[in-house]
Structure formats: structure tokens, C-alpha cells
Amino acid sequence: MNQSIVDKGLLLVILLAIFVVPSSISGTAVALPAIGIDTRASLTSLQWVVNAFNLTFACFTLAWGALADTFGRKRCFLMGAALYTLASLLSAIADSPLVLDFARAVAGIGAAAIFSCGIAILSTHFDGAARMRAFSLFGTVAGLGVSLGPTLSGLMLDGFGWRAIFWGHAVALMLVLLGSPFIHRDMTNDRASSRFDTLGATLFILALLALMMAIVQGSQWGWRSNGVYVLIVAFIGLLMVFVRREMHHGHPILDLSLLANRIFVGMALVTVAASFGFVTLLTYLPSYLSTVLHLTATQAGLSMLLLTMPMLVCPMLAGKLVMRGVSSASVLNASLLCLLGGILLLVMASYPGVPLWQLAAPLLLVGAGMGLSAGLVDGMALKAVAEEKAGMAAGLLNTFRLGSEAIAVALYGSLLTTLLGERLRASLAIWVSDGDILSRVVNAVAAGNLDVPLPVVAAGKSEWVKNLLISGYDDAFHGVLWVLAAIILILAILIAWLIRPHKVLVAVTQPQ
Predict the structure, then answer these.
(1) Is 326 left (phi over 0), alpha (psi -120 to 50) or beta?
(2) Measuring CA to CA, which residue among 172, 205, 192 is closest to residue 85?
(3) Domain 255-512 adopts which CATH fold?
(4) 163-178 vs 3-27: helix axis angle to the nearest 10?
(5) I want to staple 65 with a disulfide (CB 3.0 to 4.6 A). Which of 42, 253, 381, 391 is the partner?
């Protein structure tokens, strides 16, 4: 078969699978109200439709990366695609919230294999300029998935019902499995496979599971609850045991030398900065637009295109800039400046009643910051490590990415609620003396619901209180943005120091 056809077929297969994962993450939430009505699910069960996927996705990326280096990247990639297909079919026919939550957790395990092994396949199959183009397309397709996921899911939901969303995932991944002949079978390490670090993988998964559970359940149990403390202690203990084991195991699931590779760690921290600067807004900005700017759900969804549109252009732009001689370090530093500048500009440009066009520049800047790094960071990170460790490195990179996304989103929500409570409690205490009711009011406003709290006050004051709630939400939003800006600034300085050797960065982008 012609090599050009093989290359294009392989790209198409990998990128189709890559598209499904972020579109599932950003799009499934659209169906939650319909799922709740159809399955009579509680609020907690509905939250786990999304959380179960994210939890297993983050927990299993490193394990799949190590498995790929041992058993073969093609084999593990196809296993993940098959697992995701079966989970999507189960989701489509689920008749209870528990079954759906379980299916989404299994889908997250498959998604971890698709991302870890798919990135490793691209890294080892392509060289030089072809690798740069492949990873630029990877960033663009991932951006398309994030951007179009809610729109595609909404269309399927309105036209055919929520189950059609999961049928769509299954069909797309069946096409991926049919295209498997385009992926070359890579070498496996049979000797290492007999000594795969099963205990290490289990310890890592349990440690990350404890941390993610603490983050997810913190808002349900309270951040100072005994349950959260127990989970955090469990995470620290399991992590210490895991690190000790990896230091002495002959075939560790995580080669700790990766964390001594400054360029790799710098690239991994770029994904952390993107989580705090972009993913948090992707998750929570619609609530601000509907609460403070009074946009409808449709208007807020369309407005989010200002944030996501640069993801369609900037990954390819980053690749072209590097191919024309611009250093990768310069492009990545520019992406961080865009994230920081966009957040700071959003602080200054946003206020109650602001015309939407005034938010265009900051949102486009944040989107550009995400897009410039999305098309570059994965390829650069994997090129900085030995080829035989590409799967493990891809798993660790995605663990940084997904773990930081979960932490960033949880931190945003916690800070917003805390700052909103400080802003509103004194004023609302005039009408609400019960502390539990007051907490529910604050939580409702933090979730973007201004209608639930209003009946607790005198009817003649409802409009005044509504304006107070809007003002309080706006103040809390700005407070959170300042914290995000500080985190991004610290990360940007650290990353610039880690990736500063210009000659090394140039060398890893050139054909060998």
C-alpha cells in the first residue's frame, strides 16, 4: 500500500478517536437534564455521569502508557477503542442511573488508552516536519471536539433523544476499529510483560482515585469534613508507597527519571496552566454569562465560540511558526502570555450589563493561549524522551493534564462559593437567620440560579436582592480570576525557566 495513503489513513483513524473523547467530555453535560427526567436520577447520580468518566480517565492514563510500552501501542489503542465502544453501547441502552454511571466509568478507561496510546503512535510513526503537522492536527481535532461537542450533542438530543449521543460515540469508534489495518503493529517487550508492575499501577490508581474523590466530594461533604481528610491522608500515604516501589522496581509503571527531564516537566506544566486558564472558563463561564449578563442558554452557548474558535486555527498556526524557524519555547511562552493577558483583560472588561462584544478580545486571547500550546506541547514533550518510554511519557503527560483539570475546576468552584458567601452572608442575614438555608442560598447563586433564593425575602425587596446577588456573583467571579491569574503567572515563570535551553528545543524539532 502506498505510504502516503497509509500515513493519511493512520492519521484519520487516530484523530477520529481523539475527536470522540473531548466531544464526549464537553457534550455529555448537555444531556444531563434529559437523562435525569428519563431515568429519574438524583442530582448526585447525574453529576457522576460526568465525574465517573473524568475520574477513570485521569486514573488510567499512566497505566495505559506503561502497558503500551510493554504490550504494544497498537494493541492497547485498539483495546481502549473497543472498551469505549462497548461502554457507549451500554450507555445508550442504560435503564438506570447506576448502569449509566458504571458505563461512563468504563468509557473513561477506554478514553485513557485512546489518548495515551494514540499520542504515542503519532510520535513514533512520524518524524520531523510530518510529526509537527500530525500534532498540529491533533491539537486542532481535540479543539474541534471541545468546541463542537455541545453543539453536536444538542442537535442529537433535540432530534433523537439523549441516547443518540452515545450511539454516535459507538458508531464513530466502530469506524476506528475498522481502520485498524492502517496502524502498524509495533514491537512488544515480552520479557517485560511478564514483570509488569501490577502493584505499582494499582497503587497509583488508588492514590489518584483518593485525590479525585476528595476533590469531587469536597463540595458535597464539605472541604473540612472527616471524609475529605481521610481521602487526602490516603492519597499521601498511597503516593509515598507508590514512589518508594517505583524507585526499586525493575520495570516501574512510572520511570521517575521522567520527572528529572526539565523539558518534559516544563511541557507537562504547560497543560496545567491551560487547565487553570482555559478549562475553568470553559466549565464556568456560561454560568457567568447567564447570571450576570442575562443571556439565554442558547446565547451563552453561542458566546462560548469566542473562547473555543481559536482552537480551530491556533494549533496549525503554532506548527507553521515552528516549521518556519520560530523556537518552540517562544511559541509556548507566547501561549502562556495569551492565557495570562486574556484572564487579566477579562477582569477589566467584565461587569454586569457589559455588551458581549467587549468580552470578545479577552476570550479570544484565552482561546489562542490554549490553541497555541495544544498543537505543540504533546509532540515536544514526547520528543524530549527516549522512544521506548513514549507510551509512559504520554500517560504521565495526560495525567498532568487531566489531574490539573479536575483540580482547577474544583478549586474554581470552591473559591467562587467561598468568596460569594463572604460577599452575601452579611447582607442576606437580615432576611435569613438560619445558617443552613443561607448556605443553600449561596450555593444556588454559585450554581447560577438567582430565582431559588428570592422567595426567602420580602416581596417588595426582591428586585434589590436580585441586584445584590448579581453584584455578589460578579465580585466573586473577579476574585477567582485574580487567583487564576496569579497561578498562571507563577507557572509561566517556572515553565520559562524549565524550557529555557534554546538549542535543545531546536534540536528536538528537527528531523533525525
Answers:
(1) beta
(2) 172
(3) Growth Hormone; Chain: A; (1.20.1250)
(4) 160
(5) 391
Q: Return the exposure string of 41-67: e unless at least 16 CB atoms fall within 10 Å of the residue's CB, then b.
A: beeebbbbbbbbbbbbbbbbbbbbbbb
Number of Cα atoms under 13 Å in the Cβ half of residue 406: 26
- Model confidence at 490, in pLDDT bands (50, 70, 90)? very high
Residue carrying C-alpha cell 442575614: 429
CA atoms within 13 A of residue 396's CA, in its CB half-sphere: 25
CA distance 211 to 354: 39
Helix axes 280-291, 390-428, angle to 10 degrees: 30
pLDDT digits (tens, 9 = 90+) for 155-197: 787 788 889 999 999 999 999 999 888 887 765 555 455 566 7
Q: 345-357, pLDDT tens digit by residue?
A: 999 999 888 888 8
Query: In whole angstroms, what is the distance from residue 409 CA to residue 25 CA?
Result: 14
Residue 427: count of CB within 10 angstroms of its CB: 15
The CATH class of 1-183 is mainly alpha
Domains 1-183 and 255-512 share a fold: yes
Contacts of residue 66, defined as CB under 8 A and 6 or more positions apart, other chains included, come to 196, 197, 201, 252, 253, 254, 391, 392, 395
* Half-sphere exposure for 458 (CA within 13 Å, toward CB): 6
325, 502 contact by CB (below 8 A): no
Residue 442, number of CB atoms within 10 A of its CB: 25
| Strand boundaries in 106-225, DSSP class E | none
d(CA 165, CA 241) in angstroms, rounded, equals 41
Q: At what angle do helices 3-27 and 73-93 cross, to 10 degrees?
A: 40
* Distance, CA of 373 to CA of 318 (rounded, Å): 8
